[in-house]
Write a structure and sequence with these properties.
alpha/beta, Rossmann fold, four-stranded parallel beta sheet, 6 helices, 43% helix
Length: 146
């Protein structure tokens, strides 16, 4: 099964996956990929432009390969703001799309407390673009307590 986990920055997407994935599942998380490609002592949310480009290419390659194995193992993919094209692809792959959103106030406070200063703008953009899909529940998905 392919799980596409979406939501604003600092919503708890990684925590949602950590609570469900097993050691043999595939987890594709741009932050984890970036950290794996970073030098010693790099911060958890490294925003270096060149490094992020390399990590993004690695993520695309990982997605392309992982979806071939979704019948053998669960694949968890974090995609904060998938485009319409990406969402259509995920639907063609019968992905289960999970939205993690503890609420705007919580997310903005977490961004201020724990993230790079530009993440507040990304979160604001996520909320401004967010539209419920037909038949989607009106509630929000809570994440871990901070």
């Amino acid at each position: 099964m392919l799980y596409v986990v979406t939501g604003p920055p600092a919503a708890g997407k990684s925590s949602w996956i950590t609570a469900r994935a097993t050691a043999t599942d595939i987890v594709i998380d741009l932050d984890r990929i970036t950290l794996a490609l970073s030098g010693p002592g790099a911060p958890n949310w490294n925003q270096d432009e060149v490094l992020r480009k390399v990590a993004l290419r690695a993520r695309f390659a990982a997605i392309d390969e992982a979806v071939k194995h979704r019948d053998a193992t669960d694949v968890y993919l974090i995609h904060t703001m998938p485009s319409a094209k990406a969402t259509a692809r995920y639907r063609r792959l019968d992905a289960r799309i999970i939205i993690v959103d503890p609420g705007r106030e919580i997310v903005m406070q977490r961004c201020r407390d724990m993230r790079h200063s530009g993440m507040e703008a990304v979160a604001a953009r996520w909320y401004s673009r967010r539209r419920k899909a037909p038949g989607e529940a009106a509630g929000v998905q809570a994440s871990r307590p901070w």
